[in-house]
Amino acid sequence: MDHSFLDQASGGRGEEQETRERILSAARQLMAQKGYKGATTRKISELAGVNEVTIFRHFKTKVAILEELLKDILDVREQLEKGLEGEFTNVKEMLITYAKTYYHLLVERKEILMICLVEADNHPEVVKLFSSLPMTAVDVLCAKLAEFQEQGHLPKSDPCTPALMFISTFFYAFMAKYRVGLDVSIINDEEKLYEHASEILLEGIKRA
Amino acid sequence: MDHSFLDQASGGRGEEQETRERILSAARQLMAQKGYKGATTRKISELAGVNEVTIFRHFKTKVAILEELLKDILDVREQLEKGLEGEFTNVKEMLITYAKTYYHLLVERKEILMICLVEADNHPEVVKLFSSLPMTAVDVLCAKLAEFQEQGHLPKSDPCTPALMFISTFFYAFMAKYRVGLDVSIINDEEKLYEHASEILLEGIKRA
DNA sequence: CAACCATGCAAGCAACTGCTTACATTCCTG
DNA sequence: CAGGAATGTAAGCAGTTGCTTGCATGGTTG
After folding, report:
1. What percent of chain B has pLDDT over 70?
2. pLDDT, tens digit (0-9, with 9 covering 90-100), for A11-69
3. Min Cα–Cα distance to chain B from A183, Å
4. Long-range contacts of A106-113 (CB under 8 A, 24+ apart)
5. Residue ranges of the HTH tetR-type domain (chains A, B) (predicted)?
6. Looking at the domain covering B74-207, what would its CATH class be?
7. What residues of chain B lie within 8 A of the CB of A162, using their CB?
């Protein structure tokens, strides 16, 4: 009994964690694809290679699984700001770096983002989670651009629209590739997109 | 009997069309909100103010309703090109006009777009329908920009990335407002967004 | 008026879904 | 070896869902 907390940490039988993770992973995959309703507990159990009853031994209800999954989407702002910490030799370099950071953030969380997108109205909380990532990204970029303006590296003007354009571009590219499965060169050649979009935006900001 | 085709056109009892339309409208609304699965035939019938049986008298199956709804999303290219027919005094004016045309096209079809988005994997055909609208928009704008380049109004360079950026911006604004219900000034003040985004893009194209 | 047509209403069915219960099995640990 | 913890198996239950059937009703049209 006195080692019960150890069981939670490392798995008494050595598989406890593994099973739980397999269930979560299967649920994440299915919910992203088929939506919350489409991901039935039977299907989840099959994909996880686990008996259906086992699911309910690990999670009280099905919603509990969803809630567990959604936890991964928080703490975005911190990571975005972290990507902008170093000194940059020029604005374009900063933009490219930021684009990469943001895009990778999206890709890393793609399943959960899809779940949020799809589950919008059945679980209203998740909508905010979904929008929070791009909007935070706009916010952080906005602040950084304003900073550059104050330092005289950019002419003063409203940085919101350019920030929105930038974030939107990579959001759409992300959606097109990972939700819709679109296979076109503009979207697949990510390096070129980082580079080219940053260039256009920079020149746009300078004179608009 | 000889007037049976009239019944289809105007409704023998004068309500035939109306009922069918009410069902379609309720289904469109619910499926956009709750997804295909979430929009049960019972709920549809309630919202339409119609008995559930009536639904199955008008549509053989539930999928038939979905298929009927999806018909509204075609013929987009034509409309986009139509919006670019007139002569423009300058490029910026063209961009603003195009942005308006595209955004309104999205808003007009918002329910169906949401259905496509949400129903992605249960009905794989619809994904293509969903992506077809923005990608067609990119395509048409690309062609127009190339045209301006050939006429010497713009320096020659790859117009794909700027077109993608432009379309992405309004796609995201659309999603944020109508899917997520985001209420922020950058997105709500559409006129300013048309204007400002066009300006930035134009300057970006000119020098990048 | 009579035939017809769209609709409503009541009932239900087979399949599925989230979830539960009771019991057997296997493995680890003291 | 004994006890416990995690899992499997079998069965099922109550609610929902897409869809059907049979019958009654009320308005329209010839």
Report:
1. 90
2. 333 334 699 999 999 999 999 988 899 999 999 999 999 999 999 999 999 999 999 99
3. 11
4. A106/A133, A106/A170, A106/A171, A106/A174, A107/A174, A107/A178, A109/A72, A109/A73, A109/A133, A110/A32, A110/A174, A110/A178, A111/A28, A111/A29, A111/A31, A111/A32, A112/A28, A112/A32, A112/A69, A112/A70, A112/A72, A112/A73, A113/A73
5. 17-77
6. mainly alpha
7. 200
